[in-house]
Design goal:
It is built from eight helices and twelve strands. By secondary structure, it is of the alpha/beta class. The strands form four sheets. Strands 2-1-3-4-5-10 form a six-stranded parallel sheet, with helices on both faces.
Length: 236
């Protein structure tokens, strides 16, 4: 299968390349070579590669940066996604679009069914939900895979940040919020799920693709540091 991976230089994109390069023909669309906010560059990438499927990983995922620049967040997470969806529709390519649990409020424990209404509390969540809506409107042959609290080899991710801070000063107290709930999910687990989706061309719609187990950011930080050999670092 010919698979185009947008944002292929990121953590999830690198994982997909590593896992699929022996079994599929792959191409990566990422900056600086391809700017997905420019539809002509998206069209050029599709015309050159002619993908059977596209995994759209590219996004502005820094939550604080999205809050500071909402216009850019919506440009990257909604407008660029719309360009990719349009190109998939015109080329007959199946679109697997990566979304996020931030389309929900995140203030209640427990897993949410896919049918729950979106209620984003952040610019990041709102912009990603707008991207979902663009996919649904523009490319019928799609999967929207919502992932959560992603971590994986090489980062960047929340566990990488916690370990770095602990290494810099093991005596410090790390202040981590304890009122937001989510499902820490490995990039390898997401890759396995996407592999299963590729093998099921009959599947369409929105799916939650996370690992089991719901924790707070504070609990996630404590377990990360325990496993990394820093159980003495105080997390509050």
């Amino acid at each position: 299968m010919r698979i185009l991976i947008t944002g292929g230089k990121g953590m999830l994109g690198r994982t997909l390349v590593r896992r699929w390069r022996a079994t599929h023909t792959l191409a990566v669309a990422d900056l600086p070579e391809t700017d997905l906010t420019r539809p002509e560059q998206v069209a050029e990438a599709f015309d050159a590669f002619r993908p059977d499927a596209v995994v759209h990983c590219a996004a502005m995922t820094n939550v604080d940066a999205c809050e500071g620049d909402p216009a850019r967040a919506f440009l990257l997470n909604e407008t660029a996604t719309a360009h990719v969806a349009d190109a998939c529709a015109s080329h007959g390519a199946r679109l697997l679009a990566i979304s996020t649990d931030y389309v929900f409020s995140g203030d209640a424990p427990g897993d949410r069914p896919e049918a729950d209404p979106a209620a984003p509390k952040t610019v990041y969540g709102a912009s990603k939900h707008a991207g979902e809506e663009a996919v649904r409107a523009r490319c019928p042959n799609h999967i929207i895979a919502r992932i959560a609290w992603l971590y994986g080899a090489g980062g960047p991710s929340f566990p990488h940040t916690m370990v770095r801070l602990a290494q810099e000063d093991p005596t410090r107290t790390l202040r981590v919020v304890d009122d937001q709930f989510g499902n820490p999910t490995s990039a390898d687990a997401v890759a396995e799920g996407l592999t299963a989706f590729l093998a099921r061309p009959d599947l369409q719609g929105t799916f939650h693709l996370t690992c089991e187990g719901t924790v707070t950011w504070c609990a996630f930080a404590r377990e990360t540091l325990r496993l990394a050999g820093f159980p003495h670092v105080n997390v509050a």
